[in-house]
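gibberellin 2beta-dioxygenase (Brassica napus), 325 aa
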Amino acid sequence: MVKGSQKIVAADKGIPIIDMSQERSRVSMQIVKACETLGFFKVVNHGFDRTIISRMEQESINFFAKSVHEKKSVESVNQPFRYGFRDIGLNGDSGEVEYLLFHTNDPAFRSKASFRSAVNCYIEAVRQLAHEILELTAEGLGVPPHTFSRLISSVDSDSILRVNHYPPSDQFFGGATLSDKSVSLTRVGFGEHTDPQILTVLRSNGVGGLQVSNPDGMWVPVFPDPSAFCVNVGDLLQVMTNGRFISVRHRALTYGKESRLSTSFFAGPPLQAMIGPLQAMVTTANQPRLYQTFTWSEYKKLAYSLRLEDSRLDMFRTGKGLEDP
Ligand code: GA4
């Protein structure tokens, strides 16, 4: 069931759509503005190879159409990157979703060579897109261009690819019929949360379900556009920009008779990378340092020990007695 009284506004209301074919400085300014106001935007004319997208999508469709037994046998070498059904994380969260998780430095899994190759090609292409967006972001902020992108291009960067399949709502009614008017079709596919990493780059098929929380406390449904990529700020980018960018809360609902398929790349740094507010973001008196410095490993450990909807960033605010020397 969907809980909470947060209101829902019109689809795409206030969501920036950024045309990446514009002049570079315009794109970088628009990205910075979107990260400051909502923490979420769509990019179009991004130059992503369409064949890579369609191969990835077709292989994912084929995979999720298999029997549960077959799907479960596709275990990744690196637990907990795996096939999952309903259970999200390790602390009791669940949703109407099945998924595949791949660690991007080791996406080895027991499946057809064509699926493995589609995943590898997609990871390389989406990593490049994330890299480009992070360079544009740095340029827009006036900090050295590789400030953020170097963290995700390192060989030991800790990024994840996730493919979520939200089956049609009517597959989850266990006996109730859809003609029963008291049965609401709307279900939570993936509950509200922020992404712990630096940046997320998501693409979906033409079925809606993603919603982002705006600064007025409303849910904004994201109109599905298979030709666009959705980009959201993660917790680490909020920290590095000293709170200037918003790590946006988002969720996925399932309401229809159609399957939704989404593919998200969570761009993360190496486990030992030190993360803290950039000096350039804390220099003036009106921008006091909001967060401590920590390693991604420390932050990830904390995030994975909490529930999906928990706010973890607050635990790394300054003034908690664990200040940097
Ligand atoms: C949210 C972003 C990614 O999907 C993810 C998720 C992870 C998981 O599914 O195992 C987490 C969630 C995500 C944040 C809090 C913890 C960990 C589920 C959960 C309850 C793969 C990630 O990196 O963090």
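The pocket of gibberellin A4 is lined by residues 88-89, 91, 93, 101, 160, 162, 193, 195-196, 266, 303-304, 307-308 (CB under 6 Å). The chain has a mean pLDDT of 91. ok done for today
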